[in-house]
Amino acid sequence: MRYLHTMLRVRNLDAAMKFYRDAMGLKEVRRVDNDKARFTLVFLCAPEDESLFKSAPKNRGAPLVELTYNWDEEKYGEDRYFGHLAYEVDDIYATCAKLMKMGVTINRPPRDGVMAFVRSPDKHSVELLQKGGPLPPKEPWASMPNTGKW
Predict the structure, then answer these.
(1) Residues 6+ apart with CB under 8 A from 22
(2) Confidence (pTM)
(3) Catalytic hit among 50, 66, 74, 127
(4) Catalytic residue at 127?
(5) One-character DSSP codes across 57-100
(6) Mind listing the pLDDT tens digit for each residue in 103-126?
(7) Residue 67: what pLDDT?
(8) Phi (first) and psi of residue 73, to 5 degrees
(9) Do residues 60 and 3 lie in contact, with contact meaning Cβ atoms separated by under 8 Å?
């Protein structure tokens, strides 16, 4: 398992960039604007981690902070501004099966062979991402519904 990023929701992207980039000195290494879903993702890393980002597989550079800005105002409450931790795993199906055997609920099953979400006992979301390319769809995951929130 390899740590990837922590996602934080931000209300004002300009103010967040002023803090994380200008004041803290983090470097923007990737940006995604999604017009259809109306959000912007900004990935930042510490200057000393930039070489890790550049040498990692595409879109999996680490360790990063992901700022998520939803264009339409949302009321998250204090507990929802922290988004999730993300880890890359060797086999997403095996990892989810192991977690389920340990009593962990798979909130967003890895139906696509790429991504799953689980929650800690304290309700912190953890994203699991398949290392390399997606695995072929596989049951019971392919038809498993979402459970709860992530």
Answers:
(1) none
(2) 0.72
(3) 127
(4) yes
(5) STT--SSEEEEEEESS-----GGGSEEEEEEEES-HHHHHHHHH
(6) 999 999 999 999 999 988 768 789
(7) 92
(8) -60, 135
(9) no
Is residue 20 a contact partner of residue 67, using CB atoms and an 8 Å limit?
A: yes
The answer to whether 7 touches 68, Cβ cutoff 8 Å, is yes
d(CA 42, CA 146): 26
Among 20, 15, 3, 11, CA closest to 39: 11
pLDDT digits (tens, 9 = 90+) for 30-52: 999 999 999 999 999 988 888 88
Q: What are phi and psi of 49, to 5 degrees?
A: -100, 0
Look up residue 9 and give its amino acid: R
**What CA–CA distance (Å, rounded) separates 89 from 91?**
6
Distance (Å, rounded) from C-alpha 40 to C-alpha 52?
23
